[in-house]
């Protein structure tokens, strides 16, 4: 066997492939978190919207859409559905009376607290191969990668579309 063939064979292990392992992790998380969320409107995407709204860091729908990588027209439908479910409300922005803020309702905050407990249990199951200290380190490193790594491409694929593409569920 040639050196090139041997080198290729040694690197063909999918357990050593970053994309494969990341894909497995994402699928496991998606399956576990979907089960944890039950019938919550819009599933994982809806959960992320409610988390972002409750944080109060995004001043309006457009900022929410950009932060989450969701098309702004899709965000309108998501927020409309959340308003109908009494999870959020649109309020006038006191700093700019022409703009509306999306704010979590008491019902939305209570639902979020319940969902966060369920999702935390699902996360613990997904990360079950790690010890508690390793989970904390993993989460810290993952957060740093997600929040501090500059964009590595000019490709304009939003976060949701990127995961859908990775999982093969995109349209």
How many E strands?
A: 2
Question: How would you classify the quaternary structure?
Answer: single chain
Unreliable stretches: none
Structural class: mainly alpha
Number of helices: 8
**From N to C, what is the helix and strand string?**
HHHHHEEHHH
Distance between the termini: 43 Å
Main beta sheet strand tally, sense and closure: 2 strands, antiparallel
Helix residue percentage = 55-70%
Mean pLDDT: 85
**Strand percentage, roughly?**
5-15%
Descriptive overview:
With 171 residues, the chain is mainly alpha-helical. A hairpin with a 2-residue loop joins β1 and β2. The protein contains eight helices and two strands; from the N terminus they run αααααββααα. The N and C termini lie far apart (43 Å). α2 (18-37) crosses α6, α3 (43-55) crosses α6 (106-126) and α4 crosses α5. The longest helix has 21 residues, at 106-126. Helices cover 64% and strands 9% of the residues. It has helices at residues 3-10, 18-37, 43-55, 61-68, 72-84, 106-126, 132-148, 159-167, and strands at 88-93, 96-104.
